[in-house]
Amino acid sequence: MLPVLAAVVRRSARVAAADDRRAAVESIAGAVKQALIALDRAGGVLWMSHAAEVALGPDRVVPPALVDAARSLGAITAGGRAARLPALAGAFPFPDGRPLRAELSLSRTPSGDTFILAELEAAPPL
């Protein structure tokens, strides 16, 4: 019984340490003032700053044109082909026509995985 208890205590300590690291990252991320969205190469949202949440509105939906540009850029970085080069900066309108200006760039995680970073500049809500 003692070895099982020791294993549970070690596992609990690892979980607590991971929770502490996650809390630190969330605290740092909360301090980011820019409207930033990190997207994977398929256009899926990995993370967004609070300012990006505000810029996207209550539904937090990323405009399809921005997702498409991220996918195209992701395909190119994965060695695939895109029908055309994606716009790296410009207007990516919401479905309701409201403009969302964004600039896309490539970034890498410490392990070398590629992701797309979108810096947003939203128009005021209608």
List keywords for this structure.
alpha+beta; Beta-Lactamase; 5-stranded antiparallel sheet; 40% helix
Q: How many strands in all?
A: 5
- Compute the gyration radius: what is it? 19 Å
Order of helices and strands: HEEHHEEE
Kindly report the average pLDDT value: 80
Q: Per DSSP, what share of the residues sits in E-state strands of 2 or more residues?
A: 15-25%
Q: What is the helical fraction, as a range of percent? A: 25-40%
Q: N- to C-terminal separation?
A: 64 Å
Supply the CATH superfamily name of the largest domain.
Answer: PAS domain
Number of helices: 3
Label the structural class: alpha+beta
Q: Order of strands across the biggest sheet?
A: 2-1-5-4-3
Which architecture of the largest domain per CATH?
Answer: 2-Layer Sandwich
Q: Any idea how many domains?
A: 2
Assign an overall shape: elongated
Poorly predicted regions: none
CATH topology description of the largest domain: Beta-Lactamase
Largest sheet: 5 strands, antiparallel
| CATH top level label of the largest domain | Alpha Beta
SSE blueprint and pairings:
Layout: H1 2-30, E1 35-39, E2 45-48, H2 50-56, H3 64-77, E3 89-91, E4 100-108, E5 114-122
Antiparallel strand pairs: 1-2, 1-5, 3-4, 4-5
